[in-house]
Amino acid sequence: MPTLSAPTAQFDYELIDSGNEQKLERFGSYTLIRPEPKAIWKPELDSRQWQMAQGTYVKKPTGGYWKWKGTVPSSWLIRRTDLSFVLKPTSFKHVGIFPEQEPVWQWIQTKVQTAGRPVRMLNLFGYTGAATVAALKAGAQVTHVDASKESITWANENVKQNRLEGKPVRWIVDDVGKFVKRELNRGSKYDAILMDPPKFGRGVDGQVWKLEEDLPKLLSLCSSILESKPLFFFINAYAIQLSSFSLVNILSQTMKPSRGIVDGGELVLEPKNKTYPLSTTIFARWEGENVK
Hints:
Elements: E1 3-6, E2 13-19, E3 22-27, E4 30-35, H1 47-50, E5 55-60, E6 63-68, E7 76-80, E8 83-87, H2 102-113, E9 120-124, H3 130-138, E10 141-146, H4 149-161, E11 169-173, H5 176-186, E12 192-195, E13 200-202, E14 208-210, H6 211-223, E15 232-237, H7 244-254, E16 260-269, E17 278-288
Parallel strand pairs: 1-16, 4-5, 9-10, 9-12, 10-11, 12-15
Antiparallel strand pairs: 2-3, 3-4, 5-6, 7-8, 13-14, 15-17, 16-17
C-alpha cells in the first residue's frame, strides 16, 4: 500500500520532532506542540529545543487549552507554493489545516488540470477548505459542504486570501447525508468527490454520525450522483479502528460499476531530521480510466 508524504512542495510547514505522544511543528513563523497519540516513541531532540515552542496545547479530559510564550497573533498565514491559508489555534488543538494533506491537494490539482474537460468537484466534510482552494486554483467548480457554519466562514476566508472569489464555488451548511440525498433527487451530478469524514460528529439538526456505521451508506449515495465517467473519489479517515484496506475494499465495492483503479495507504509527515515518519491518516482513492 502506498504512502503520501508531506511536505512534497514548497510548503512553509515542518514536522520538527515527535515522541512521548506529542509532535513539535512549525507553521510559518510559529512553533507549536500538539498531542499526537500515535507518537509512542521517545523524541529525538532534547527538551531544550522543545521548550522553545511558542505554543503548547494542553489536553484535558473535558477539552484543552493553549499555553503561550510571548506574543502570538490570533491568526496568521501559511504558504504552500502558490496557495496560502489562514491559521487560527482552536480550543480543540487544530489550527485550520492538516499538513499531511498537502500531497492530496497536489494530487487533486494534477487530476483537475489534466482532465481535459470541466470538473465539478464535491468536497464533503470540507472543514476550512484547503482542498477547495487547491481545486478552485486548478480550475474546478466546487461544492463545499460542512455542518459547521464557522468552518464554512473560515473556508471562505481562505478563498478570499487566495483571490479566488470569482471562481465557481458553492457553500453549503448542512448535514452531508441529507445534502447528498437532495442532490440525488435533483438529478445533480459530479465528476469528482472528496470526503474527510470524522470518526464521530453531529449534523446541523443534531444528527449523529458514526463513521463505521454510516460510511457505507454515504458512499452508496455518493456513487449515485457521480457522472457516468467519473474522474476520482478520494476518502480520508482519522483516528478510527479501520485499516486502509477496509477503506479500499468499501470504495472498490462502491465503484465496481465504473472503470477505474483503486488504491490506498497512509498520509505521512516526514520530519526534518529524517528520523521517525509520523503516520496520521489512512486514505483510499479511486480514479477513472479514459475519462476524457
